[in-house]
Amino acid sequence: MHRTRGASYFTSRQPFGDLSIVVKRFPQRRETSDPAFVLVHGIGVSSRYFQPTAAELAQHGQVYLVDLPGYGASPDPRRDVSLSDHAAVLASFLAAARLTRPVIVGHSMGAQVVARLAVEHPDIIDHIVLMAPTLPPEARTFWRSVGRLFIDGFREPPIVNLIAVTDYFVRCGVPYALRQIPHLLGDRLEDYVHRVRAHTLVLAGDRDPIVSPEWAAEVSALIPNSRAQTVSGAHVVMFTDPVTIADEISKHAPS
After folding, report:
1. Under 8 Å CB-to-CB from 137, ≥6 apart: which residues?
2. Fewer C-beta neighbours within 10 Å, C or N terminus of the chain?
3. Quick one: pLDDT band at residue 101, thresholds 50, 70, 90?
4. Residue 41, pLDDT score
5. pTM more than 0.90
6. CATH classification of the domain holding 92
7. Domain count, the chain
């Protein structure tokens, strides 16, 4: 058992076919019938930057943090893994966990994974949150995306940059991250999010240089049952302002 911000969590590795994920489970901190929350990280990093928000959400329900295949504490899959592959593993986890109407939250590339999950496995979920859904069309080149990431580094606290650097270069590794980048850049959210039927909340930070509130609003407008919300912060707002983000996510949960 581990603890963060006053909340306890348990870690387990779960295999699904030839891919495995590592899941941190935060038991709910009070007796309620509130739904579960599943939080999915972005490219190169891991569930670590979601831990402050997870600790806050544990006051509202059970929380699961997922390290996608090849990321964080999950083992290297030693093969190419597409966004659809990540979504399929996530779907298998949700089915195995037998969660009742969970809220699935994806950040950055994780938002792309969650959007694909909602389209390709629609019977599993009915509430999703897309945080900073990367990337707007004009930024879908390697150097433009790197440039935006570089700018964001100056807008985040040092601890966020430390987590990102160690996750990218030590835990995920450059070779795997580079294999993942074409999937992120080649993914056109605008071509398929109109097929999302889940109740959707699209969140964006007002100082996020990677994903602007305007792009988040465009994505939201394409989803039939969706609303967009701008919050104060840069790209990794769930680490810098976990109370606000947890509040927005919990309010989006099914009643």
Report:
1. 188, 190
2. C
3. confident
4. 98
5. yes
6. 3.40.50.1820
7. 1
